[in-house]
Structures are given as C-alpha cells and as structure tokens.
Design goal:
Layout lengths: L2 H6 L3 H22 L8 H16 L6 H32 L2 H12 L5 H37 L10 H32 L6 H20 L2 H7 L5
C-alpha cells in the first residue's frame, strides 16, 4: 500500500479535524502563556504571586512552609508523569491489538475501516500524551532547580545576593509551572483526540469543547475573579 493509498483511507473532514485539534492545541497554549496585561490569564496572574512568594521567603524562618509547598508541587508533576506513562503504555498495547479494537469501534461507528485507520487515531492521542509526559518530567526537574536555588538564598535580607537569588528561584518556579500547565493542556487534548475513534465530526466537537473549557478556566473562571481582586478590598 502506497502513501497515497493510506491517505485515501481518510476523508477531507478527517484532515480538517486533525488540523483543527493540532492548531487549537498550539494557539490556546500560546494565548494562555502570552496573555495581555488587560486580560491576563490565571497562569499569568499566578506567575506574579510566585515571584512574591520567593521575596517573602527571604525573611521567613524557618522555611519549612516553603519547602512543603514545593514538595507538593513536585508530587503533582510526579503523579501526572506516572499517569501519562501508564496511558502511553496502554496506547502502545492497543496498537498491538488493533483487531480487537476494530471490532469494538465498528460496533460504535457502524463502519468497516482498515486496521491502519484505527492505529493512526490511537497515535494522535499518543502524540499528546507523549508531549504531556515530557513536559511533566521537565517541570519536575525545574521545580528541583527552584528548590536548590531557594536553599541558596541567604537568610539575611540585607545580603546583596538575597533578592537576586530569590528572583531567580521565582523565575525557575514560573517556568516549571508553565511546563506543568502545558502538560495538563496536552492531557485535555489527548482526551479530545480519542473522540476521533467515533468520527471526524465528534473530534471537531470534542476539540471545540476542550477549547471552551480551557478558555473559561483561564479567562472567565471564578478563581480568576478572585485573583484580580485587590489585596485591600
């Protein structure tokens, strides 16, 4: 079977649906991480609180509270990294049993598509899961870098290296959180990609719902309203 024959197994609507989910994945991530000052996202608002956290840490004695928070953040990345790795393993196992999957899918969709079609659909979900796994692992490492930097901050607030090192720790923490959020978005889109098993129309609908959920949580959620409130209100 030539490459053209393989492409012919998919309809133009399939191509549009895949292009839509990939484009949406890139654009919604860019919009969230690069939001404007007039309409900041929750991620952008939290970034400033992370900077403030590191400045407050300078004078906090002892710093057990800070280490506990950072430990919780690292546990979150570890959990999701493990979960995505298990999901990737499950997806790879499905690739070896596409005949059984084909029977189930045919009952759902009432179509008789070749095995290759189901394999490609599984690979799309695996693409997002693999990206999520890599981001979670990198986030875990960056949180570790941030912990080391935090430990190097002098206890004396008047020390010339205290504020600069605290600021570096804050920026590392923000970068780690950015990778963590990227991984979560990839998990969302991996779940949406599974809708392609039913059909391209379902994939388009799942993509739009995913975009709506992410947009609401970052730009129209109650948590964002709380973050926007002034501290003196």
């Amino acid at each position: 079977m030539t490459f053209a024959d393989r492409i012919a197994l998919f309809s133009p609507l399939d191509g549009f649906a895949v292009a839509l989910i990939l484009t949406s994945w890139v654009l919604i991530g860019w919009r969230i991480e690069n939001s404007s000052s007039t309409t900041p996202s929750v991620s952008s608002l939290m970034a400033q609180y992370r900077r403030d956290w590191m400045i407050q840490m300078i004078t906090r004695q002892p710093r057990i509270f800070d280490s506990a928070i950072l430990g919780t953040l690292r546990q979150g990345t570890t959990f999701f990294a493990s979960a995505t790795m298990i999901a990737i393993g499950g997806g790879l196992a499905l690739l070896g049993k596409t005949e059984e999957l084909q029977g189930v899918a045919q009952n759902l969709t009432q179509t008789n598509a070749p095995t290759l079609v189901w394999e490609v659909k599984i690979l799309l979900a695996l693409l997002f899961l693999t990206d999520a796994f890599l981001k979670f692992m990198w986030s875990h490492r960056l949180f570790g870098y941030s912990a080391v930097m935090m430990a190097s901050v002098p206890n004396d607030p008047d020390h010339p290296a205290a504020v600069p090192r605290a600021q570096k720790a804050g920026e590392l923490n923000i970068t780690a959180a950015r990778s963590y959020n990227h991984g979560l978005r990839s998990v969302y889109f991996a779940m949406a990609a599974l809708a392609w098993m039913i059909g391209p129309g379902t994939l388009i609908a799942a993509t739009l719902v995913t975009i709506l959920v992410l947009w609401r949580r970052e730009f129209a959620s109650h948590s964002r309203t709380i973050l926007l409130q002034g501290d003196l209100e």
